[in-house]
Amino acid sequence: MLVCFALILGAGLYIGSKSTQITSQDWHEMTLRSKNMIRRINGRDYKSCMASLDDRMKRNTTSERMGEVFDPALDALGKFVRFKNFSIHKNHPALSHYDVCEVKCEYENGSATFTVFFDDQRRIGGVYLK
Fold first, then answer.
1. By C-alpha distance, which of 48, 39, 46, 106 is closest to 70?
2. pLDDT mean over 3-17
3. Left (φ > 0), alpha (ψ -120 to 50) or beta: where does 108 sit?
4. What count of Cα atoms within 13 Å lies in the side-chain half-sphere of residue 130?
5. Which of 17, 47, 84, 101 could disulfide-pair with 30, CB 3.0 to 4.6 Å?
6. Distance between CA atoms of 100 and 92, rounded to whole angstroms?
7. In the chain, what are the domains?
8. pLDDT in tens, 12-41
9. Do residues 106 and 113 lie in contact, with contact meaning Cβ atoms separated by under 8 Å?
10. Is 72 helix (H, G, I), strand (E, B) or coil?
């Protein structure tokens, strides 16, 4: 069963001239921030998650809404086991305003992939769980 949940609100599109090169600093920062957000989501600490969101996202969601979105998926997945791998994409093709970190995670009842969208200041502009 494929369960998809999206919490991508107000994601703006624009044509930017950002570099498409991934630096080791980009890699480190995006993976660290993604892991921290996923840990908070797994712990269902949605109020803490709100502090990492960009302004647009903060205006368009609440910690209660995050619970409504993520709790059913987390219930089905069971206990978090480990982070499996990371993939980073600069200037995401569908959302050129955002860089993206995809994180594959293993849970006791299966695997899930989190997609975390970052703005230019490395604030989170969306989280997608598949």
1. 46
2. 39
3. alpha
4. 8
5. 101
6. 6
7. 22-129 (3.10.450.590)
8. 333 333 456 778 888 899 999 999 999 999
9. no
10. helix
